[in-house]
Write a structure and sequence with these properties.
Length: 200
């Protein structure tokens, strides 16, 4: 299937921003990676900052939509957090460059472009906050610092984008399951160790 020029620019930007950083990526770098001249590159991306913001919006919208669908109609806080962690870990393992761009570059954006990105991020994190609070009210989660616990869990799950490899000892499902177990322990829910993980 042929890739459009716009998509080629986007893919090049994702890879370069993730590996070299936004400020470390020049227009010539982008043009070379997308196989375009620097002059024609602007036709497909606007400014470099607008390109970055577009990548971040797309990634966060997809994550928010998928998470909303995953927990829709699920009342049990333990099952909700299990689904959120599994989705987050899986997304970071399968799209490591995109998620690293989102996680590392919000502060690069100007206030105008940052606003929508932050709104999407906050809406996504609200799903986690609401789930943790529901678990505390139901007496199934026990944490005196729910906000700090949420940040710590998300940071732990974000790290998968930096170290996970499909050639590693664990399958992605095992990695996700272990992160679920660690998250539940952080929330005061103790679960028996899963087979295949205790000896890994």
């Amino acid at each position: 299937m042929a890739v459009s020029t716009g998509e080629r620019v986007r893919r090049a930007a994702v890879k370069l921003f993730a590996t070299k950083g936004f400020h470390g990526t020049g227009i010539r770098d982008l043009a070379q990676a997308a196989k375009l001249s620097p002059a024609s590159l602007y036709h497909y991306m606007g400014t470099k900052e607008e390109l970055l913001a577009g990548i971040m919006r797309d990634c966060l919208r997809r994550l928010l939509d998928d998470a909303t669908d995953a927990v829709d109609g699920v009342a049990d806080p333990v099952e909700r957090i299990r689904r959120l962690v599994t989705l987050h870990v899986t997304a970071h393992a399968r799209q490591p460059n995109e998620t690293r761009v989102v996680d590392d570059h919000i502060d690069v954006l100007s206030p105008r472009l940052r606003r929508e990105v932050v709104q999407l991020r906050d809406a996504y994190e609200r799903l986690w906050s609401d789930t943790i609070e529901a678990g505390r009210k139901a007496g199934v989660f026990d944490t005196g610092q729910p906000a700090v616990t949420r940040i710590a869990v998300l940071d732990m799950c974000n790290g998968v984008a930096r170290w996970y490899s499909p050639r590693g000892a664990l399958t992605l499902r095992q990695v996700a399951d272990h992160h679920v177990e660690l998250t539940l322990r952080a929330l005061g829910v103790h679960t028996p160790a899963r087979c295949g993980l205790a000896n890994s």
